[in-house]
Structure formats: C-alpha cells, structure tokens
Amino acid sequence: MLRPLLSVQVPVRNPGAGMSLFLGSLAGQAGLDFEWELVLADDGSDPPVSGRFDLETCGAGRVRVVRLEGEGNRPAARNAALEASEGPVSLLADADLKFAPDVLKAHADAHRAGRADVFRGARINAWSPRATPWQKWFDTRAGNLAPAGPMPWRHLVTGNVSIRTKLLVESGGMDPSIVTYGGEDTELGYRLFRMGASFYRDPAVRAYHLDEVTVRRHSEKMAEYGAGGLRKFLEAHPEAGGLLGSRWMEPVLAEPVAMAPVRLAVRLALLRPLYRFVLAWMEKAGRPRFLFTYLSVGAVLRGLSGRGV
Predict the structure, then answer these.
(1) β-sheet bridge partners, residue 160
(2) Over the stretch 136-171, which tens digit does the pLDDT of each residue have?
(3) d(CA 126, CA 90)
(4) Which of 4, 30, 191, 212 is most buried by a 10 A CB count?
C-alpha cells in the first residue's frame, strides 16, 4: 500500500465485546480518499487481542499490532503505537468507542486543510434512548458539545482526537509515569500548548462511548485522577494550577481556614458523609444537575487531598 495519511492508534488491555463494534465502525467509514492504518498496542492482554478478534476486517490498508507485557500502562501503550505508526496524522482512538461513518475523513480533511495541529471531535455518552441524566450531563463537560472552533488545551481528550504525528513525537508523547486513571491527555495538551500548538474542535464529528459508566463509577475514577494524574501534573507543572478546582486545595487545607463561600463549598465536598449522601441521592433522582458538578469536582478534590470516595 501507499504510505498512510492517517494512523489510527488504539491501546487495548483485555477488551470486551465493544471491540468488535469498534472494528465494525472502522469498516463502515465512508468517503475515504486516502490510505490509513490501524496500529493496535496490546497492553498485556490475556489472551492476546490478535487471537480473539479478526483485526483485518476493519478495512485498514495495513494493520500492525505491538505487544507490551506487564500489568498495563496506558500512556506507554499509546507511545508504543505512536512509534510503530507511519502516517503524518495520528488519531488517538479507544476500543470502547463506535465511530460515526465520517470520523476518519473528518480528521483527515481537518489536517489537510491546516485547520489546527490538534483536532478533536465529540465523545457521546447519551446516545441511547435509555440515556441517564448523568450521561446527558457528562456530555456537556470539557467543551464536548461546544460550537465548532478553537478550543483550550485543557480540553484535549483522547478517543476522538488527532494530532500531527511529527508534533506528537517532538512532544515526547504521553507521560508513562501516570499509571492510574486520567490526566495523561491533559498533561500532553499542556505540553503541546507550551510548544505553540493550535487546537480545534468540531462536535459534529462523533464517537459513541460504549462503556456505560455510572455516576458512582465516575466519582471513583475522578478520585483516582485527583490522587494520581492530577497530582503528578501539578508536581510537574506547578504554574498550570487551577485545573478542576485544584486551586482551592491550598487555602482549604491550610490553617486557619476562612469560610468564604467557595472555601466553604470545597470543605463541604471533603466531608465524606455529605458526599456519600449526595452520591446516593443523585444515583436515584438524577437532579438537580449542579450536584453532578459537585460530585465530579468533589471527587477530584477528595483524591487530591488523600481521601477516597
């Protein structure tokens, strides 16, 4: 085949049935006037992914599988996929997504038109008629459904985002020291921003998230992010503080604490009985919506301060 324009890079570790839907959505891509490749980083799956799924059915001109051993390191797996790629554009995908038929072409067209160094589509959770209030709320986070146009670096989210490969390599790729859930994409976004990269989003370019994460599971993940990825980010880049409420931690935890409204709200988020009460309420009622923000930010703050959900 000719050199691919687009390298679809996917880290996987013991994927479920959604992997077949992901591959099927790749096979259903329309309007392709360019070559593309699938580069899959098998992050220690048992059994290996290549023995469970027929990867050749995805429609790519070339399929490559790189294998990593060990307990799993998602950023390292993304870096391994990047190293094995040949396309000048890297699409950082996930195996629990189902791409709309125009996703690959939209990413390729955006880079061919020079729209930006980083191009992001939307990740949709509320795609089912059974979508929950939490899923609908979550779809509005991180500018996911904001109008098409330039976006801030902190809204870089993997799964439906493409980056010029040369720039991604020059940045050093993902930080493999972030071994827990979350934060590696935001940290990469900040380094790309420092390098002068441009960022653009288009919510019409859609990928549907097949993993139905609940509000409780999301809260657990946000606490893990606060304790791991966010903490490492702030240690490496202290000048970039203020992410997702982290700017409130120092004045809240320092003594004496002045109970200004914001500080009081954060202190309340750190009270475990109150947090658990709100979590149980929102699991059942799903309203008022602002309490989803309380749960998300509160979980990050609890994790960052050494508390769990």
Answers:
(1) 93
(2) 999 999 999 999 999 999 999 999 999 999 999 999
(3) 27
(4) 4
